[in-house]
Amino acid sequence: MRKIKKGDEVIVIAGKDKGKRGAILRVVDAEHVVVEGVNVVKKHQRPNPRGAGGIIDKEMPLHRSNVAMYNPVTRKADRVKIKELNDRRRVRVFKSNGEMIDV
User: Fold this and answer.
1) 79 pLDDT more than 80
2) With 80 as the cut, is the pLDDT of residue 96 above it?
3) Are 67 and 11 in contact (CB under 8 A)?
4) What is the rounded average pLDDT for all residues in the chain?
5) Residue 13: C-alpha distances to residues 17, 67, 100, 103 (Å)
6) What domains are defined for the chain?
7) Whole-number pLDDT of residue 4
8) C-alpha to C-alpha distance for 4 and 19, rounded to whole angstroms
9) What is the DSSP string of the chain?
10) Cα–Cα nearest to 94, from 103, 84, 82
11) Model confidence over 7-43: pLDDT tens digits?
């Protein structure tokens, strides 16, 4: 089970966009994630027959060590652990207050 998944609300804890929050748009591989509105670069797009070209804004991947889950209760970055319930289900839990992320 992954500690960070697509759709999770995260906060950037290192780099040029430190402090920004956003949802994870996709998980690129085991080490990289793309976060909405974070690490945006300008890309020079060549025109193709169906669409227009030009300079577009594109979100680039971040290393997963540079993001942390956002805890809405404490309104801070928080670490995640995986806890096994009595019925053998595994859920993600915030380390600071023990609040469940997955239900």
Assistant:
1) yes
2) yes
3) yes
4) 93
5) 8, 5, 22, 26
6) 9-77 (2.30.30.30)
7) 92
8) 18
9) --SS-TT-EEEE-SSTTTT-EEEEEEE-SSSEEEETTSSEEEEEEPP-SSS--EEEEEE--EEGGGEEEEETTTTEEE-EEEEE-TTS-EEEEETTT--BS--
10) 82
11) 999 999 999 999 999 999 999 999 999 999 999 999 9
Q: What is the dihedral of CA 81, 91, 70, 31, to 10 degrees?
A: 70
Alpha-carbon separation of residue 14 from 23, 26, 53, 67, 75 (angstroms): 16, 19, 32, 7, 17
Start-to-end CA span in the chain (Å): 14
Give the residue-averaged pLDDT of 86-95.
94
Structure tokens at 103: 């239900």
Does this model's pTM top 0.70? yes
Radius of gyration of the chain (CA): 17
